[in-house]
Amino acid sequence: MKNTVRFKIHIYSPKSGHNDLYSFTKTKAGWKFENYRCKGEVDKGGNPLFYKTLNAESISNPDHLASCISEVWEQAETLDEKQIQLVFDELSRMNL
């Protein structure tokens, strides 16, 4: 997998009233995270910036979300880009 591929997740924000786009690009130590509010490096599970952004948008998230994102990171070398995006699509449908 190329490290330049951006994986996207759309999450409904009660604060803005529409789906916001969040993107993750795999790095050696975790992810490069980005959305309209901010961008920066996060760990394999998306901590801390992804969750700070969700909290700022009044989005609650399940306790297992960080472990799901971390597992995707761990499996990224054995999955192709479409399979990884499918996992992020599933996360989008969780209605966080």
What are its keywords?
alpha+beta, 26% strand
Write the layout of secondary structure elements.
Blueprint: E1 6-13, E2 18-26, E3 31-34, E4 39-42, H1 49-56, H2 65-75, H3 81-92
Antiparallel strand pairs: 1-2, 2-3, 3-4
Structure in words:
With 96 residues, this protein is an alpha+beta fold. It has one domain (6-92): Integron cassette protein  fold (2-Layer Sandwich), CATH 3.30.2210. It has helices spanning 49-56, 65-75, 81-92, and strands at 6-13, 18-26, 31-34, 39-42. It has a four-stranded antiparallel β-sheet. The chain is globular. The termini are far apart. The mean pLDDT is 93.
Cα end-to-end separation: 28 Å
CATH class category name:
Alpha Beta
- The percentage of residues in β strands lies in 25-35%
Q: What's the number of structural domains?
A: 1
Task: Average the pLDDT over all residues and give the rounded result.
Answer: 93
Would you tell me which CATH topology applies?
Answer: Integron cassette protein  fold
Strand line-up across the major sheet: 1-2-3-4
Quaternary state of the chains: single chain
Helical/strand content category: alpha+beta
> Order of helices and strands, N to C?
EEEEHHH
Uncertain ranges: none
Helix content: 25-40%
